[in-house]
């Protein structure tokens, strides 16, 4: 799904006051019924992360953390079964999973007299049952399952979706009898930074007439900020090393971003269906 800049901005404006809950997706789908839920979720995740990055510093001051921790302790005494951390995160417009991390870190510091390592915190967030304080464990779990943008559950889902689309891409290439090397094979050959696919026989899409040596799969929506980051960190380095290539944003992208075709980077929101191999000069489908 390609969106114009104006269409994307309309969706982004509507998302500004939404919280990262499962319920927000129902509201988005009702407002924008022509967009797929996957596309809307991807756009919401991008916009929400921008919002958090703009405000995260104020939540990480020692004063803010202490205020949140004292609020948590007080409200847990008054109502130990209430979703205290989730409500607090919503009240201050902060990610529930990130709020859970702050309180967990502060709790462990209180209990152990020292800051815990990042690996310890991450393991406890991934597996809240390992948290000794059962009430806090339950609070962390509630935050994790109610946050659709941050946290270990979201990370796991995103990784699985990314893997699924890479497998889908390889299957499509095999169906068309196109010879390729995937990222794992390239690393075995000694490449350190590689796209998902290198085509052993370059292909030309018959409709658009662009030579393609590599393909990168992105199970996300391509907005200005993420695409600019990918260009600088990945795509141009692929272009320098392997030549022109194709980026597939499976959940769509802002159509104005597809402006580097003549320089050798083509954007699509699906796998090209009409392919001509240079070695044969004949269509394969």
Automatic annotation (TrEMBL):
Subcellular location field: Cytoplasm; Nucleus
Top-rank lineage group of the source organism: Eukaryota
Pfam families: TPD
Family matches, as PANTHER family: CDAN1-INTERACTING NUCLEASE 1, SIMILAR TO CDNA SEQUENCE BC052040
InterPro entries per the UniProt record, alphabetical: CDIN1
GO cellular-component term (any): cytoplasm
Keywords: Cytoplasm, Nucleus
Protein's organism: Lepisosteus oculatus (Spotted gar)
Any GO BP: erythrocyte differentiation
Native organism taxonomy: Eukaryota, Metazoa, Chordata, Craniata, Vertebrata
Protein name: CDAN1-interacting nuclease 1
